[in-house]
Structure formats: C-alpha cells, structure tokens
Design a protein that fits this description.
Elements lengths: L3 E7 L13 E6 L2 E5 L5 H7 L9 E3 L11 H10 L6 E6 L3 H8 L10 E6 L3 E5 L4 E6 L7 E6 L3 E4 L1 H6 L5 H9 L1 E3 L5 E3 L4 E4 L3 E5 L6 H7 L4 E5 L7 H6 L5 H11 L3 E5 L9 H8 L5 E3 L5 E3 H8 L9
Parallel strand pairs: 3-4, 4-5, 5-6, 14-15, 15-16, 16-17
Antiparallel strand pairs: 1-2, 1-18, 2-3, 7-8, 8-9, 9-14, 10-13, 11-12
Amino acid sequence: MSDRLLIALGTSSQVPTRERNHNGYFVRWDDAGLLFDPGEGTQRQMTHFGVAAADITAIFLTHLHGDHCLGLPGVIQRLSLDGVTHPVDLYYPASGAEYVQRLRRASIFTETAVIREHPIAAPGVVHETARFRIEAHPLDHTVESWGYRLVEPDTLTLAPEKLAALGLRGPAVGRLKQQGFFDLPNGRRVLASEVGRPKRGGSFAFVMDSRPCAGALRLADRADALLCEATFLESEAAEADRYGHMTARQAASLAREAGAGLLALTHFSRRYRQTQPFIEEAAAVHPNVMALTDGMAVSLRAARRLSGRANGAAAD
C-alpha cells in the first residue's frame, strides 16, 4: 500500500527553539511529495526525518515571512546537488515574486533541477494530477497569504454481490469501471451507480498564518485532516488577532464549523514550552486533536478512517 503521511519537519513559529525548528511540513501522497512552507533549517530536518530531495514533486508557500520560506534556498540547491531529474512545481503568492527570486538565487550554485514557478493571484485549482487536485484560497494574515487544500475525486466502490447477480466479472467489470456503464447481451445498460456505493475522495487542508476567515473555512470544509496554525492560547487572543494568527480554541472552532476530521495543531510561539494546554483548549471544542512535534509522522489514511469520510463505504 502506498504511503499517505504528514511529516512535521518543524513546528515553531517566528523563532526556532531548542525543541522546535522553523516551520516545514512534508506530505507523502502516493507517488507525490508535497513540501509546505520550508522555514530555515528544513534541509537538515529532512535528513533527520527521512525525506530525500528526490521525494519532492511540488513546493507550496503560503506567504513570504521568513519562518515560512528561509529554507527554500537550501532545498532548491539540494535538488540540483542531488541530481533530481523530475521537474518540481513551486507555488507562492504572486505579490511575493521578488522575494522568491531572491531566495532562488541567494548564493552561487549550479542549477540543474527544473523548477516550474506558479505565482498565485486568484483562488481555485492551482495543481492537478490524475489522482488529486490542490486548491488555493486566501487567508487573513498581515501580508498576502494563501492556504491549500488537497482533494481526491469521488469514486464508486462496486458491490461484488450486485456484480455477481448480473453475471458481471473480469473484463466486463473493468469496462464498467472505466466507462461508467456496461451493456449486457440482452441490451440492458447497467450503470456503475446501480452496482456500487459512493466513496468520497480523500482530503487534506493546510491553513497556516491567518485569523479565522472565510478562506480558512473553505479550505477546511469536511477535510479528513486539517493542519492548522495555533500560535497562541486563548489567553492571548487579542495578540493573536493583532498579528494575524489563531489561538488553539479558534483553530478548533474552525475545525468544528467546517466538519473537519483530525485537527493537527502547529506553529507554536516560542513562549510556550508545553503543548498539552493547546490540546486541552482545542479538545474542549473539537474531539479529534493533536499537537505536532518535530519529526512526528501522522498517517493520513488513519485520519481518514477516524473521520469517517467515505459516506458509509470503506475509506481505502
């Protein structure tokens, strides 16, 4: 079975600590490797936690504050140093293009890797493969910021007993799956929907620096797993609002309103040494909560099963 993992490369906010590196998150989704917000030190964290440069197929920046992008030069140069042959897509706010160019050419190196830039200026689908799409929606921070949402298309799970009752097997089942219908010898057309049950596609939402807002709600909508910033506790709610961030309670309220499954909290201010208060504050609002630590690997398949997102069908 292919991997679907969230790996926390770093979980601190503006300033790294002894225990926490700057931001950095890697999602293995089957054969895709998605790197989100590589802060300073991301290249070393990748080595620590088993992520190779060749694993990266796309990079997503929410915004251009340093704790979300200062690791980009090292990662970009590592792609060339390691001889990565596949192209890597780079997504970022269009208003930050000047900073991205500076980061890409921060020092002398021989660039051989192919980096395809995609500045984002409007909400909607920004990345699409045969298996999933990634949407971007605006967030509410102190600078332009975008969140990301990975969504698989919905499918059908065919019921063996219904297929058997119609005498469908082997190549006939394959054609039914491929074209959505199959014509029986007696002339009857069998639709896939008649012999199957709906299976909702998997989903993952990435909401970084932002106040609660409509864009965050849209990203989190019924997501199997929501990775969300929780820079402060509710006791610092006024400070959170002033600097364009969320509290743990606000992140949990977002997850509850959106009907999200697993809520993974991160981006903690250096003032907090322990994350248990974040879990307790969020758990009072949303039942399925964890606080990420550097190096933590979260099974997105398990998150999907826990969230019950398959509309009654098996999630995998």
